[in-house]
C-alpha cells in the first residue's frame, strides 16, 4: 500500500505535504484514543478536528468503499434506528436521543477508508495503551487513597467513593484493562520468537499490571466472564496444539492461585449467586438479579412486536407500563435491558437483530489472518460480542467507541496488508 501511494506522488517536493495530509487525521484519531479511557466530553471535542482533517483526504474512492458489507451494515443499523422513530410511541425527544448510541457506528466506514490508505494505526494503538497504562497506575493509587479519584471533581451529581475507580466506573475500566492485557500477548509472543526479549518483557510486565489491577483492586463480572474466553481464543489461533494445552493448563493453575490470594475476586464471583437470591427470592434490586428481570420483560416485549419492534426509544416507556402496580425489582424502570440483542430486538424486532449479527460476523470475517491488526480487530469484536450478553456494550459510550476505533482502524490496516500481499 505504501508503494502504491509513493507512485501517486507527482513530485518529491510534495512529499511532506502529502504525508502531512494523512498524518494529521491519524494524529487526531490517536488523540481520541488517548482521551477515551479518561473523558467523554474530551473525546467528543476531539472528533471535530479529525472530521475536518478527514474532509481533506482524497475521497474519490470513498463511495465505492461504502458498498462493502463491513461499511454498509453499520450504516444500515443507524438508518434503521432513524426510521424506527416513525412507529415508536415514545416522546419525540426520547426517539431522537435514542438514535445517538447507534450513530457512532457511522464513524467505522470513515476510519476503514482512512487507515486502509495510510496505515498509521500503530500510533492509535500506542496512544490507547499509554493512556490505559497511566489509568492503571492511577487506579492503584486510588486503591490506596480513594480521595485521589478524579470522580470527586469530574462526576455529575452525588459521588460515592469507590476504591480503585479513577474515572467513570469499574465496568469501563475493567473492559479497557482486559482488552490491553490480552492484546499485549500477541506482540509479546512475536517479540520473543524474534529474540527481542527486553521489549517483550516490558509488554509482559504491562499485561501483568493490568491483570493484577483487575484481580486485586476492582473488576467487573462482565470482564471475569469474557477474559478466560479471550485467552482461549488466542491460544487456539496463535499457539501450537501442545503449547495451547500447556497455556490452558497454566491458566487454570493461575486461576486457582488468584482465587486463593484475592478476596476481591472471590467477593465478585460470589455476587452472582447472591444477586440471584436477593432479586428472585426477595424481590430486591441487585446487579445480576435485576438483569434477569429486565431480560424476562424484554422477551415479552419482543414477542408483542417480533418483526419491527416497538420503535426507537420505546424501551423506557414499555418498562414504565410494566411496572404499574409492582414493587421491588419488578418495579424498576430502565431504558436499557442490559443485553445488546434484546436492546435491538425490543426497538426494531427481528430486522434489527439480523443486521446486528450480520454486522458482528462481517467484522469477524474481516480479521481472518495473521498480524497485529487482525489480532486487535478480532479481539475487539469478540470482546464486544461476549460482553454484550450482559450489557448493551455496542451502544454504551466507552465500549462502543472502543469497538468503533478498534474495528475501523484495525480493519483498514488489515485491508491494506491484504492489498500488499495480493
From TrEMBL:
Regions crossing the membrane: 29-57, 69-90, 120-144, 176-192, 199-216, 222-239, 244-262, 345-365, 372-394, 400-417
Cross-referenced InterPro entries: O-antigen_ligase-rel_domated, WaaL-like
Subcellular location: Membrane
Keywords: Ligase, Membrane, Transmembrane, Transmembrane helix
GO MF annotation list: ligase activity
Membrane topology of this protein: Multi-pass membrane protein
UniProt main location, coarse: membrane
O-antigen ligase-related domain sequence ranges: 208-356
Protein name: Ligase
Organism for this UniProt entry: Bradyrhizobium canariense
Amino acid at each position: 500500500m505504501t508503494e502504491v501511494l509513493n507512485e501517486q506522488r507527482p513530485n518529491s517536493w510534495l512529499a511532506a505535504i502529502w504525508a502531512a495530509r494523512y498524518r494529521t487525521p491519524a494524529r487526531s484519531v490517536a488523540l481520541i484514543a488517548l482521551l477515551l479511557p479518561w473523558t467523554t466530553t474530551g473525546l467528543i471535542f476531539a472528533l471535530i478536528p479529525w472530521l475536518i482533517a478527514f474532509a481533506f483526504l482524497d475521497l474519490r474512492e470513498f463511495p465505492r468503499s461504502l458498498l462493502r458489507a463491513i461499511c454498509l451494515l453499520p450504516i444500515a443499523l443507524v438508518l434503521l434506528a432513524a426510521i424506527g422513530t416513525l412507529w415508536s410511541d415514545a416522546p419525540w425527544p426520547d426517539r431522537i436521543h435514542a438514535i445517538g448510541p447507534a450513530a457512532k457506528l457511522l464513524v467505522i466506514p470513515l476510519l476503514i477508508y482512512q487507515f486502509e490508505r495510510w496505515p498509521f494505526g500503530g500510533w492509535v494503538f500506542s496512544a490507547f495503551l499509554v493512556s490505559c497504562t497511566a489509568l492503571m497506575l492511577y487506579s492503584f493509587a486510588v486503591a490506596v487513597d480513594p480521595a485521589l479519584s478524579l470522580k470527586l471533581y469530574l462526576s455529575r451529581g452525588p459521588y460515592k467513593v469507590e476504591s480503585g475507580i479513577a474515572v467513570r466506573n469499574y465496568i469501563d475500566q475493567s473492559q479497557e484493562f482486559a482488552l490491553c492485557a490480552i492484546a499485549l500477548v500477541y506482540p509479546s509472543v512475536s517479540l520473543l520468537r524474534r529474540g527481542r526479549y527486553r521489549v517483550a518483557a516490558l509488554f509482559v510486565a504491562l499485561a501483568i499490571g493490568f491483570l493484577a489491577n483487575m484481580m486485586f483492586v476492582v473488576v467487573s463480572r462482565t470482564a471475569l466472564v469474557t477474559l478466560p474466553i479471550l485467552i482461549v481464543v488466542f491460544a487456539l489461533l496463535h499457539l501450537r496444539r501442545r503449547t495451547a494445552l500447556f497455556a490452558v493448563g497454566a491458566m487454570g493453575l493461575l486461576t486457582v492461585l488468584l482465587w486463593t490470594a484475592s478476596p476481591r475476586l472471590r467477593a465478585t464471583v460470589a455476587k452472582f449467586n447472591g444477586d440471584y437470591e436477593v432479586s428472585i427470592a426477595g424481590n430486591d434490586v441487585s446487579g445480576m438479579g435485576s438483569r434477569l428481570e429486565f431480560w424476562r420483560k424484554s422477551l415479552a416485549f419482543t414477542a408483542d412486536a417480533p418483526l419491527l419492534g416497538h420503535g426507537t426509544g420505546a424501551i423506557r416507556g414499555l418498562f414504565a407500563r410494566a411496572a404499574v402496580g409492582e414493587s421491588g425489582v419488578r418495579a424498576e424502570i430502565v431504558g436499557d435491558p442490559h443485553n445488546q440483542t434484546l436492546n435491538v430486538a425490543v426497538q426494531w424486532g427481528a430486522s434489527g437483530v439480523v443486521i446486528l449479527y450480520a454486522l458482528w460476523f462481517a467484522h469477524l470475517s474481516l480479521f481472518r489472518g495473521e498480524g497485529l491488526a487482525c489480532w486487535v480487530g478480532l479481539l475487539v469484536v469478540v470482546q464486544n460480542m461476549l460482553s454484550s450478553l450482559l450489557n448493551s456494550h455496542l451502544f454504551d459510550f466507552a465500549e462502543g467507541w472502543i469497538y468503533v476505533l478498534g474495528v475501523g482502524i484495525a480493519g483498514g490496516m488489515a485491508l491494506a496488508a491484504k492489498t500488499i500481499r495480493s
